[in-house]
Specification:
two-stranded antiparallel ribbon, about 170 residues, four-stranded antiparallel sheet, alpha+beta, Immunoglobulin-like, about 20% strand
Length: about 170
């Protein structure tokens, strides 16, 4: 007889714990799908995906102040490592993360709390030509921490901004 009230209490506790979850966020995380085969969670996982889905306050990953992926040329999913991403907030506070081997860069929230809008530029020393290539983002980042929030045009939909890239040709 005692097992029934304990089971009911456990079920109520479980329901109360899950009722606070944000179902829209839960669905967004699930929509990202599984990790790529052989890639562990960490700095090189999920290039090009919207970082702020998992790293934007609701988890499951650590909170990022800013994150994204840099590609070499528009329309080609070839990552570009060693790009310096200069981010300057409205107060003039600057950070300069560098993209890794899969093109990812990020700043953890404990490293920076920018005041929006944020100005962004990319610079890269092209080893093939010896030239420095740089580009400034024309618009400003208004509040979302992940570049793919706006730059999700891998689907070639004309209304979407293309992924972040440098033209090296």
């Amino acid at each position: 007889m005692r097992a029934l009230p304990l089971a009911l209490l456990a079920a109520l506790a479980l329901a109360a714990g899950t009722s606070c979850a944000n179902p829209v966020h839960t669905d967004a995380v699930a929509a990202l799908g599984d990790e790529a085969p052989g890639v562990k969670q960490g700095p090189t996982h999920r290039p090009g995906q919207p970082c702020s889905t998992c790293h934007g306050g609701e988890g499951p990953g650590p909170d990022f102040a800013m994150a994204g992926t840099i590609y070499e040329t528009r329309g080609v999913a070839k990552a570009l490592p060693n790009v310096t991403v200069t981010l300057i907030d409205a107060n003039g506070d600057a950070r300069k993360p560098v993209s890794n081997e899969v093109g990812n860069f990020y700043l953890r929230a404990e490293e920076w709390a920018p005041t929006y809008p944020v100005f962004a530029s990319l610079s890269y020393a092209d080893p093939a030509t010896g030239k420095n290539v740089s580009i400034d983002m024309i618009s400003r980042i208004g509040g979302n921490r992940g570049c793919a929030f706006c730059h999700h045009g891998a689907d070639n939909e004309p209304s979407h901004m293309p992924p972040v890239f440098l033209r090296l040709k």
